[in-house]
Structure formats: C-alpha cells, structure tokens
Amino acid sequence: MFTKLKSLLYNNEVRAILFQVLAVAVIAYFAYQAFDNLMLNIEQRGIRSGFGFLNDEAGFAVNDNFFLEYSPASTNLQAFYVGIVNTLMVAITGIFLASIIGLIVGIARLSSNYLIKKIATIYIEIFRNIPILLQILFWYSIALNALPSARNSINFFDTIFLNSRGLYLPKPIMGFELYIVLASFVIGIVSYIFIKKRSNKKHDETGIKTNTIPHFLGLVLLLPIVAYFVFGAQLEYPALKGFNFKGGVDLSIEFFALAFSLSIYTATYIAEAIRSGVESVDKGQKEAAAALGLKDSWAMRLVILPQAFRVAIPPIINQYLNLTKNSSLAAAVGYTELVTIFSGTVLNVIGQAIEIITLTMLVYLTISLVISLILNTFNKKMQIKGN
Amino acid sequence: MNQLLKISAVSLLTIGSFSAQAGIFHSDTLKDVQSKGSLTCGVSTGTPGFSSPDSSGNWSGIDVDVCRAVAAATLGDAKKVKFVPLTAKERFIALSSGEIDMLSRNTTWTHTRDTSLGLTFAGVNYYDGQGFMVKKSLGINNVKELDGASFCIQAGTTTELNLADYFRSNKMKFKAVTYDTSAQTKGGFEAGRCDALTSDVSQLAGLRSTLKDPSSAVVLGDVISKEPLGPVVRKDDNTWLNIVRWSLNAMIEAEELGITSATIDDASTSPGVQRLQGKSGKLNESLGLDKDWSRNIIAQVGNYGESFERNIGMSTPIQLPRGVNQLWIKGGILYAPAFR
C-alpha cells in the first residue's frame, strides 16, 4: 500500500498536478485570510461597509460635465458615471491627438530633410524625458497665465470664445431641424463610403483611379451645411453674462491642459514605435516600390506603412493604455475625472476607502481590457494571413 | 519526498502565523506611545497659525499645540512629537490605519465623520466658519452678488459640500474648480481661473497675506457654515479618547482659572487650581497618567489663551480676533466640562 502511494508520488504527472493544486490552495487560503482579516478589522473599528453610499446624495458640484445629467442633488452613483465619462473623454481625445502627432513625428524622424529630422528628434528627446506630471503642471500654468480673462476673451466671430477658463462653443438645440441636419450627415457618410468602395473596385479591375475628394467634400461637409441653412436648425451661442459665459458648450482649460500634455508626451513613444516599425521593413520593399514607379509618398502609404504597422501596433497599444492610466494625474490640475471625483471627493465625504478604491480600479481595468481587445483584434487583421 | 515535506511545512507555518495575526487588535494607544517614547500626530501640510513648519522644520500652530499638550500629558515632554503632514484626502485613512496616534489638522466635526469612519472627535479647539475671498476689482461686498461665479476650492473638504448647499438653498448658480492643495487653490485664484476663493475664514486671512498683491483681494464678511475644528482619535480606544479630550480641556480650564505657563507652579489655595497642579484629587488615575499630567501641559504648552495669542492672535500676521473662541465667561462659547 505504502509503496504504491510512494510510486504514485514519484510519478511526474501526479506530482505536477499535486504541486499546482497545492499552490492554488495556498493562494486561495491567503486571499481568504486577508479578506477575513480586513472584514474583521472594519467591523471592530466600526467603519461603515457595503455599497449603500452609492444611492446617497452627492452634495458637491462637478466642473466638467459632457452629456450626463448632474447636479449636487444627484447621487454618488451619478457622480461616479460623470467621472467615468470625463476619464473616457480625456483618454479618447488624448489617444486621437497622440496618434496623429506620433505618426507625423515618427515619419519626420526618418525624413531625408536635415531640419525636419532634427526637429522631430529634439521634440522626442525633450518630451519623452520629462515626467508627465511636471508637463501637465507646466502646460496648465502656461494656459492659465497666457490666456486672457473672461472679459477679454479671444473672440472668433461671436460664436467661439477662448479665455483662461476654457473654450466656449455653440451648442445645437435639440429639435426636428437638428435631426434633419444629423440625418443628412449620416446619409452623406454612407453614400461616400459606397462611392469610395465602387471606385476602389474599379481601380482593382481596370487600374483607373478616380479622385473621390470632391465627393467627400460634397457629401460629408456640404450636404449637412446646406441642410442646416435650408431647414434653419438653431444653435445656442455662448455669451458673457455676469461673471462667466453662459449657454453653449464649455470645455474647461483643465481638460485642454491635460489632454494636450498627455498627447504630446505619449506621441513621442508612438513616434518611436512607428520609426522602429518603418525601419523593420526590408529596404528591398522600398526599392521594389520605386522600381515599379511608385512615388515616394505612395510607396510610404501603400507599401511601407502597412508592413510597419505590424511591428508598431503592439507597442502603440501599450502607449494607449499608459495614456488612459496617466489621465488619473488630473487631480493635479483639478480636471474632474474619475480619480478626482470618486477617489477624491466622494472618498472624503463617505470615507469607505476599500469599496471606493476597488470600484475605481475596476473601471481602469475594464477600460484597459476593452482597449486591448479592440486593438488586438485590429492587430490580428493587420498581420500577414497564414502566419 | 523530502522537498515536498519541506515546502508543505513552510507553507503551513506561514499560513499559521498569518491567521494568528487576524485575532490581534491594537487598541492600547497610550501603551504604544509610551513604549515608542514619542507621539505620532497628523497635521496639515502647512496652514499658517494652525500647523506649519518654520524654516528649520519646527512645527507650530494651535493644532500643533494640541499634539504637544497630549505629549506633555502622556510622556512628560511636549517636544516628543513626530509630526506627519497629511492632505485632506489622506487624513482619515492615516488615522484609522494606525499610521498616526491622533489627528489634529483643522478637521471639521461632522455627523458622518464622527459616526461612520470608526473615528471619534475629542473636542473643539477652534470654532470656524466658511467664508469667501474675492478680487477687489469685482466690486463685490456680499455673497449674494456671486450668482454665476466660479469658485476655487480645495478638494476633499466640507467646503465643497457647504458651497453647493448654500447656492442650492439660495437658488443661485455656480461653478467649482477643485484643486488638490491649498497652494494650488491660491494659484488658480491669482491667475484668474475663478472669481472667488472659498475656504474656512481662519485660513482666508493667511492665504490673502501670501498673495503677490494682498490688496488686490478682499475677504467678505459673510460666513455660510459652522466649522467646529478639533482633534480626532480612533473609536476603539476609550482611554486614549479621554486623554486627548481632557488634555484640550485642561488648557481651556487653565485659562478660565487664570493660570498660565508662568504661574502654574505658584502656590494656590484654590481647590480647582490644586487639582490642575496635580496636588490634590485623583483625576490622573482613570486616565492611566502621572499625577502631574495637567501641570506639564500648562507648564510646557500654556493655557488655551496663550496658545491662541501666540499662533493666530492679533499680534501675529494671521490677526484673528478671539470672537466666538473666547471663554464662555467672557462672551464666547469655549466651555470645558467640570474638572472634578
């Protein structure tokens, strides 16, 4: 009996399973003990626990709010949602800008033009090597002190105003006319995609290229503008009343400072990822494209970049995730995103650190996983089929 | 086999020691403080007159004096205090996690904080209220004229909630720009990000004096909230709560009896003075302290009035009047329960 058990213990497969089961059991036990310990301490110290506070009245005001209904009479849960939307808004804006700047700078860095190449290199070396928090504080104080006060706002045709408090834009008034303008915009895009596809097909079959830029301008830009004037949809214009601009949409200066610093910081890493991607493409590809008579810009767009992206996308995904996580530095300049609202004000009012920090972490985890999922799918599409 | 046994033994031992910890719960703060030989006290990151360090790192202020009083009572030496600067957001976690022994950081006593954080307020060492500072160029004399204005506030304070309450009840609109520290709040105000800065009245005067041009701003007379500020301790240690509460009360009682740091050791026939001197009565026993605990507080820190005048009184740059923080016998609301 004992020898049988012993031989079973010395069996490699059995041992492997045994060790794994043991490891999981130990970790699970630790986690359980830690949780139990925590709950015991909370109870002994008389700290309130649970998620009931989410339905309590928030009682504080939030400066930046894009499209959600919120007032101090709203609940903590609504404040939480406002925080998530604000985090997403700054992350999306940042990712969009960082990608454009990164792509341009990355290609500029490989340019044969000495000046362009040097400017791109200097930009990357400066902004990549300064901590992001300092950059946020720097751009914020620049914006605060360089822009004029509310009364002396920079005025663009009495419709758009810029001052040290933010940017004020006209807001469409929801109504029948607005829906027609929006519908014409959607129709324009759909029909443009249709035309573009047909021209691509024609190009594949016959080699004749059609210029679709006029179609784009006409359908996507002109159509909604014409619809706007024909049906006369109303816009609410911002106007200076009392201390501040009222009406319209306002984007706070904190939002701009944060989105701007995050983009120019992250763009340096994206530029480097693009550069390494382009450099990874075999020199023969460029020469072959030239031999076929493709212009330099075409060779870049049609031959080099699609292959470069295969190498560049994974590090770019990392940078998108970093940008999103770095947006939590907003507290430094008072942009009201998730960490400022929820792990800041709500935490201070309610005091339930464990629940509030856990919820905040879950949001960041979810956002990061979603970004990874989307981009990994895109990455798979870009890879050479069959590899 | 040997290896397997070793691993199992080690893991069992670790688990054993881990679960043993679950039962232990520290609640004898006095013993901890006395065995460490110093008191760890949470203070602000720098509020002139309340708790702020000088150029050589010595802390002073009326909040700091409460820490020193407790150190004098428990250790016999008011200098044996380690100060931990905390932001408004960090303070309660630092206290409930045991990082500090007590919190004395211009903290408003509210129902929620007193009942749901596992903490208890030990008293009030300054009765404050929320006020406003505005740019003089706006020509405003009254809070009611601030409809639609934007305000710079420090995040994680009751100020945020009071502001929203006040404007809601008066059906006025406002914008709030919340910063992490008091210095950033001042920076935003100076740069014109907001029309007004709102904070506790006691801090406004100090903030105004540090502006590049103090005469460009005025502090409005309106006070929109009650802000009783006081020291906080953990709820699980009643003896410690009593020590902190009665250390503060001893300072107030001493002022009422007219004894100062200079006169505490003078012979007196008054039973009240004798009790405070530790010459009669057994007030120390139930606190677990030496007989001269209250004598040490007065001798080393002084009475409440001395602390007030030294840190925030009219002779200091803060220049706060006693106002409601005067003794009850002189028209204020400062009132220590009976020392017997």
Write the layout of secondary structure elements.
The complex is a heterodimer of chains A (387) and B (340).
Chain A: H1 2-10, H2 12-44, H3 76-108, H4 114-128, H5 132-146, E1 154-156, E2 160-163, E3 166-169, E4 171-172, H6 176-206, H7 213-231, E5 235-236, E6 239-241, E7 244-246, E8 249-252, H8 253-280, H9 283-291, H10 296-326, H11 338-350, H12 353-382
Antiparallel strand pairs in A: 1-2, 2-3, 3-8, 4-5, 6-7
Chain B: H1 2-23, H2 29-36, E1 39-43, E2 52-53, E3 59-60, H3 62-75, E4 81-85, H4 91-96, E5 102-103, H5 111-116, E6 119-121, E7 126-128, E8 130-135, E9 150-154, H6 158-169, E10 175-179, H7 182-190, E11 196-200, H8 201-209, E12 217-219, E13 227-229, E14 232-234, H9 238-257, H10 271-277, H11 293-300, H12 304-311
Overall body shape of chain B:
globular
Q: Class by helix and strand content of chain B?
A: alpha/beta
Q: Into which percentage range does the β-strand content of chain B fall? A: 15-25%
Give the topology string of chain A: H per helix, E per strand.
Answer: HHHHHEEEEHHEEEEHHHHH
Polypeptide structure, described:
The complex is a heterodimer of chains A (387) and B (340). Chain A is of the alpha+beta class. Chain A folds into two domains: 43 residues; 247 residues, MetI-like fold. Chain A has twelve helices and eight strands. In chain A, the strands form three sheets. A four-stranded antiparallel beta sheet of chain A has the order 1-2-3-8. In chain A, strands 4-5 form a two-stranded antiparallel ribbon. The radius of gyration of chain A is 28 Å and the shape is globular. The mean pLDDT of chain A is 86. By secondary structure, chain B is of the alpha/beta class. Chain B contains twelve helices and 14 strands. In chain B, the strands form five sheets. Chain B has a five-stranded mixed beta sheet. In chain B, strands 4-1-5 form a three-stranded parallel beta sheet. About 3% of the residues of chain B have low confidence. The interface between A and B is large, with 54 and 53 residues.
